[in-house]
Amino acid sequence: MSTKDSDVVLEEMGGLDSESLVESICQHHLSNLGRDYGRSDKFSLYQALAYSLRDRLVGNWIKTQRSYYNRSAKSVYYLSLEFLVGKSLTSNAINLGIEKETEEALGKFGVTLEDAESAEVDAGLGNGGLGRLASCFLDSMATLGIPGYGYGIRYEYGIFKQAIENGEQVELPDDWLHSGNPWEFRRRGFVFTIGLYGREEKYTHDDGSLRHRWTDTAKVMAMPVDMLIPGYKNGNVINMRLWEAQPARRFNLDLFNSGDYIRSMEDAVKTETISKVLYPSDKLSEGRELRLVQQYFFVSATIQDMLRRFEKIKLDFSELPNRAVVHLNETHPAIAIPELMRILIDEHMLNWDQAWRICRRTFAYTNHTVMPEALEKWSLDMMRKVLPRHVSIIFEINRRFLEDVKNCFPGDEERLSRMSIIEEGEYPQVRMAWLAVVGSFTVNGVSTLHGELIKKNIFYDFVEMFPGRFTSVTNGITPRRWLKQCNIPLSELITEKIGKGWVTDLSRLHQLESLAEDEEFQNRWYDCRLKAKKKLVEYAQKEYGLYMPADWMYDVQVKRIHEYKRQVLNVLHAITLYCRLKKDPSSVAVPRVKIFAGKAAPGYFLAKRIIRLINSVGAVINSDSAVNHKLRIAFLPNYRVSQAEYIIPATDLSEQISLAGTEASGTGNMKFALNGALTIGTLDGANIEIMEEVGRENIFIFGMNADEVEKRKHEGYVSGDVVGGDSELAEALNLLADGTFSEGDRDFFAPILDSLFAEGDQYMTLADYRAYVDAQDALEQIWLDRKKWLKMSILNTAGSGHFSSDRAIMEYATSIWGVHPMEKES
């Protein structure tokens, strides 16, 4: 069949009008679901509609792929261990430009688009900000026409489903694939073999050169599963390719016939474990080894897939960096560097210098942490066991690199130790961030502050050696999902006032500034915000039985539970309000609900105890009639993208209170500001840039900055000294200690108190307490002035244009990747 003939077939895959959608829905009920469309329900309608939309996506995806090949486009290979996609139904309808037609089609079956999407489950492919950022970036790549692919793992169970029992987190399997995934294509014809374990051996090649090979390996298979990502109303569709682990031998008939039924399936079970769960617990050595296997598994499959595409165009390998750029989203995929070296040297017989020049021009690396202890390291013994050939390559990379360091800084032995990829000691480790820096042409931070901090602290030595290698690109969020989709009333009001161009050019939101003091516009803005709050009220009541008055201030902190995020600081403020109300019911003027959500890592004891603290304090406050007319606490279990789509538009006050110098960027802070929430925050991560964009007077900044934190630590911070001078803080801490919030058990929250005192209050929660409480008191006075609060809310949205992922991706494309937007071929 000719390309012209196949184009006709693609065009016949379905129209975009409501009648064509109805026909497709009926057809998929019959052909894919084996059901009578006259007896459809919400779930069958969701599935049939998803297949119908996928039909319309795949034609454009094929045309997009053709354009890459026809124009010899340089493509981005974006490697991320997480993609926090959320639900796809509404997002895909919006990006296809047929949300109205979709609503009309579903109306024929008596349901709404919201009804149908309620039957979809969030894709279990990520955990937090790292994965959500990656998903926003793919949306922007598709919308901007940037040639590229996202690569990760198709986790069968995601991370975990969080339940709250007796106030404590309980982890349950997130069986998100139990009913299948209608959005995906399983590509059984593109399976790659992945080696593990085995040994390295030397041999003499036919040309007389000494070569290495990796032998006696265990074999697993990587099968690609594609999910399509459409650009916004541009006909451009890219794909996220996720790898599923499959056994090289699925079933041992000899063992089965001998009666050993369990062992007959052993290979299959072990192999499939690789893509079962995101972040298996690393408390045991087996869990740590599985994490390493996971990372290599998806990296090896991705590099093989990239080279498969490259070899189609029959160019010399020296041209690879002109055709592909591999972006490492954090250190998790850093093993890609020695993997590409292995393939080029061992399989394609390039010499070391040729292969290293190619690698150094192919990889770019984004760092997402400012804390040295969070940088990934792997035990050298474990790496030798799992990836013996790669360890040899890493040692050679390190040997040559340290020779360069010696030449640049002769006689500086301490620098050699600091910069070595291999961290020596009783238990030597491989520093994966060091490997990523040495093997990449660019290293970027994710906010202005973060970019400066990693140069000043973590990578100081490398900056001196490679001053031009380090840069920063502030994170961004897609306005399609995080305003247009999740906050329809507000997005429609904005469109009415400034036109629809903001959806793909978020900088146009600045036009709202002239309306910030317009009384009629303020009233309509308030009505939109109230609708969002009522929608959250209905959701929380239906899903969790929680009552949250819609006219109260919604004070929200939703993010991963971690000491540095300082949820404890927020709880201490709640206890302070509780104490004030107990003494004088009129002492707190503004009624507020403190809303929390977020997961704690299963092995992170203190984070799980913080969840218990939030729920225990909430149980006391919510049941006390002396205070619950002004203060309530709500913890919403199992935080995920679809839940965030309810919470974020309804938020009045966004809590971004990490210790200055610990948060790389954040993207939740951007989503809240975009939807008109006011931020209370430290000068940390992207909070600084939000402040610069919306104006210092429109954000509530408190506490120490990063330099002041370092100075105070250097001077010898003693948390106990803070408490003696603050009676409210002392009172709140005493209530934690005396069993008021733990049914009389004085020891229950001792681990949290120990972290604040005996262990030195690492994240200086107590040091920032008074500044935080004072800021909360000040913002209450502004809340009472409705016009002023609404003006500030409007200006926060108006100032959010800089935080579009479209802007971020264009910065990556032009300043890092060297990739240009393409228009889809007709």
From TrEMBL:
Query: Which reaction does this enzyme catalyse, per its entry?
Result: [(1->4)-alpha-D-glucosyl](n) + phosphate = [(1->4)-alpha-D-glucosyl](n-1) + alpha-D-glucose 1-phosphate
Q: What does this protein do?
A: Phosphorylase is an important allosteric enzyme in carbohydrate metabolism. Enzymes from different sources differ in their regulatory mechanisms and in their natural substrates. However, all known phosphorylases share catalytic and structural properties. Allosteric enzyme that catalyzes the rate-limiting step in glycogen catabolism, the phosphorolytic cleavage of glycogen to produce glucose-1-phosphate, and plays a central role in maintaining cellular and organismal glucose homeostasis.
Q: Does the keyword Glycosyltransferase apply?
A: yes
User: Signal peptide: which range, if any?
Assistant: none
What name is this protein filed under? Alpha-1,4 glucan phosphorylase
- Organism from which the protein derives: Maridesulfovibrio ferrireducens
Q: Name one GO biological process term.
A: glycogen catabolic process
**Entry cofactors:** pyridoxal 5'-phosphate
Q: Give the GO cellular component terms, alphabetically.
A: cytoplasm
Q: Which InterPro entries match?
A: Glycg_phsphrylas, Glyco_trans_35, Pyridoxal_P_attach_site
**Where on the chain is N6-(pyridoxal phosphate)lysine found, per UniProt?**
K671
Gene Ontology MF: a single term: pyridoxal phosphate binding
* Family membership noted in the UniProt record: Belongs to the glycogen phosphorylase family.
Q: Which UniProt keywords apply?
A: Carbohydrate metabolism, Glycogen metabolism, Glycosyltransferase, Pyridoxal phosphate, Transferase
UniProt keyword Iron-sulfur present = no
What Pfam families does this protein map onto?
Phosphorylase
Q: What is its EC number?
A: 2.4.1.1
